[in-house]
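Changelog note: in this version the structure field was regenerated for every chain. One regenerated record is shown below for reference.
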Amino acid sequence: MLSKFEIKPNKGYGQIEFGMDMDKLAEIVGEPEEIMSFDDEEELSIVVLHYWEQGFTVFMDGITRQVVAGIELDNPDSTLYGKKLIGETEDVVIAFMESKGHTKYEIEMEEKDKRYSFDEGMIDFFFVEGKLEYMNFGVLVDEEGNIETV
């Protein structure tokens, strides 16, 4: 179980580090409550591990070696640069990100939410009715499970 809920862009979340294998992940956070797999045999092989009780989901990527490549969370105790953001308004979150040097982003309307994507840090914020509902962040991983530089 996680004891720290700090989001570290391009690095990880709490004790979870991008590039970590599934065995090491299980040592830290235990077994997931639900597992889903997506693959098309040649270009895509993703395993999604849901830790519903702990408020996050881990995305494992890589064809020959699967590693932690992304995390999605809605845990209100999570912090980014020392600040809790889940439940905050769009204005507060965007102003905070800009104060940390993340000034370039794209906005996309989805079915039930509004997404702000910050390429630097590979962070997406999802707002429902103007409040931050959940966010995801990650890194690019090649088929061997190596983290690629953006």
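Spot check on this record: The chain has one domain: 6-142. Residues 25 and 103 are 32 Å apart (CA to CA).
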